[in-house]
Task: structure prediction
Amino acid sequence: MPDWLENINLWFAIPLQIAGFAIAYWQIAKAKNAATAAKEAAARTEKQIGANLLLVVLPELNQIETNLEWAVGQADRNATIHYLASWRWQAGQLRGHLMRQGGVDDKLLTQIQQSIATAADTKLALSDTSADVAKRCRAALKSIAHVTGTVGELMARNSIEGAITDGAD
Result:
């Protein structure tokens, strides 16, 4: 093949290579945008699942609080111990979820942890059968009431803002 033909082929190949590079770059950018959109959709879904979890957990925590108050009022040591254990489990689940979700005030997480610890201490104190149930449960009831109130406020804000946060979105 003559040299001039090779030069023509070379000169025609360069624009085709540039066009191929441009198409590849465009495809990469398009894939990146799709990946970003998928990541954002997954984050929104995770946030919505978190909001739904709060909708389920708060009534459960309120019911435990109500049952615990009833058991303490009846001086039913065994039922009180049962509801304190239930509180510890449910509050621990809530705390773990909120920690994973992020954006929640550390003060709330500390309050939940303190209520869990107070419930554990109270449960242990009730193993003494001569202990006054109402007197031993006073601190736990106060701590639990504080948490359910704060989580209720968080849920109300969540329904208004659309996010499980401390208003820091």
Summary: DSSP finds four helices and no strands in the chain. The CA atoms of residues 3 and 9 lie 10 Å apart. Confidence is low (pLDDT under 50) at residues 163-169. Helices lie at 3-73, 77-101, 106-125, 133-161.
